[in-house]
Specification:
It contains 13 helices and 6 strands. The chain has about 270 residues and is α/β, with parallel strands linked by helices. The longest helix has about 30 residues, at about 120-150. The chain starts with a strand and ends with a helix.
């Protein structure tokens, strides 16, 4: 279980001296080869940013790793002010001001009409008013932009982009992880049994097969799946997999025999 609340790697002198990048790489190396379930959870009020996300992203070991986030947490490469500096700079903010603000729309119309009359003093006055209005609106639009960027860092957006499996509430997280862990461990035992019965089957194929068996449970909740796995042993299904694998192997061996020897191979 990893409680993730890190702000990333700054690349500064302090982080370089403390070998943060080196130890982050060691974490990745350990997670790549890990053979047991790993849960990453961003706690309430926590943030996962920048290089820290790369270190514990589930894509490192998708067969074993799952990421969850509390509904009050945040996650993303850049923080909202950084996103605004990159994606919604001053020119873009001014374009929006002129598109939405009634006073600026009126001033733009006045500026257009005055420019056609070629009256320099009037044009300069209007441009000064426009500039003053833009400076007045700038803090408000920056604040709105930061709030909009922050919406993209919340649980709902992370779940929609499939970077986390589910958003959780802190008060229910203990119960959720209890049943989730038991489900994963029991499922993993079944997957190993399937792979032992059919050595040619990959872990991914075994996982899909076991999930198809578990779909017979009353509901898709982890608690229901645990009760199904504990009350409905899968020995018969695993034995059927073993029989099918043995038949396939015998058929392959039989096809490899010369035509003259095939008749003698059968009892």
């Amino acid at each position: 279980m990893i409680f993730a609340n890190w702000r990333g790697f700054s690349g500064g002198t302090r982080d370089m001296y403390q070998e943060v990048l080196k130890f982050g790489a060691q974490i990745v190396d350990a997670l790549v080869d890990y053979k047991h379930p790993v849960f990453v959870y961003i706690p309430p009020g926590g943030e996962l940013r920048g290089g820290s996300w790369v270190v514990i992203d589930p894509s490192i070991n998708p067969e074993q790793m799952e990421m969850y986030a509390d509904v009050e947490s945040r996650g993303g490469i850049l923080e909202p002010p950084g996103i605004v500096e990159v994606k919604f700079r001053s020119p873009q903010q001014k374009q929006m001001m002129h598109r939405l603000d009634p006073e600026l729309k009126e001033l733009d119309a006045m500026l257009e009409s005055s420019s056609s009359t070629e009256v320099t003093s009037t044009t300069d006055d209007i441009e000064n008013k426009i500039k003053a209005r833009e400076e007045k609106l700038a803090p408000l639009y920056t604040q709105i932009a930061c709030e909009f960027a922050d919406l993209h860092d919340r649980t709902g957006r992370m779940e929609a982009k499939n970077v986390i499996r589910k958003g959780l509430e802190w008060k229910k997280s203990r119960e959720f992880f209890y049943w989730r862990m038991r489900n994963r461990l029991l499922s993993q035992e079944a997957e190993k049994a399937v792979c032992a019965a059919d050595p040619d089957m990959s872990i991914k194929e075994a996982k899909e097969l076991v999930q198809s068996w578990i779909s017979e449970a009353e509901s898709a909740s982890d608690e229901a799946m645990v009760k199904f796995l504990e009350s409905s042993p899968l020995e018969e299904k695993v034995q059927a997999v073993k029989v099918a694998a043995t038949k396939r192997q015998l058929r392959s061996l039989y096809q490899e025999l010369p035509e003259s020897e095939r008749a003698n191979a059968l009892p």
